[in-house]
Amino acid sequence: MLHYILQFIIPKNRPKKSPIILDIHGGGFVAGSIDLDNTRCIALAEAVPAVVVAVEYRLSGKNGVAFPQPLEDCYAAYDFLRKNADEFGADPDKIGLHGSSAGGTLAEGLALYIRDKGLKQPALTVLNCPTFDTAIEETFSFHQMIDLKMGPEQKSLGAEATFLGGYNGHQPSYYAFPNLCHDVGGLGATMIIMAEYDTLRDTAYHYSQRLLNAGVPCEVLLAGRMAHTFTSTPHPYTDFVHEYMAWSFKREFGMLDDLKKD
Known about the structure:
Number of strands: 7
Number of helices: 7
Strand content: 15-25%
Largest sheet: 7 strands, mixed
Shape: globular
Helix content: 25-40%
């Protein structure tokens, strides 16, 4: 039985054997839908161009859903695209990931899971305003932006606990919160986007430094004077960031090889 839904955006101007981008939406693990990312998915599909596929995974807290079920849905979607790319004229060797907020956490958990299974890494994993740890209160950005904090005071009722199915005294899987991974080496090219005015900013920044220290190709964009998931809002800066993502996907998909060099 399938527990996920896929929405395909296929641009008219795409090349033969076009690349694929799997989009994982945000919503704090407990809310949200593929509708949140429609604008971004269309923008990336047209700009790369690529087949962009949004996955509607099971939300935590509903009908007993908790980790690892949402991640299993995302992996099932990735595996389906990898194995069936030929059916929609795409290239199974050119698959990228994008995730926003909780979707970014899931996307990096997925990249780690793919690594540990010995499969080829995504060409590029874009992590947009993610969080990689449950210890958000230990970061400077949390206290600096205390007025912007999200979730209830009681941690056992928060999105992280709901995603994990509750705290039980055991360390969560690093597929759930990637900063808990002792060794982040061997991951593929990564882009991390952070918002300056975001309580989650520093978990993303610290994780980016770990990737760079482990020799993982990683580019980092700190969006000045922007707030959490700012790219969900129509704005010229959003357009700029989506264009930046598109060029990075093109680079990792090998679509810049024909550019003239001075």
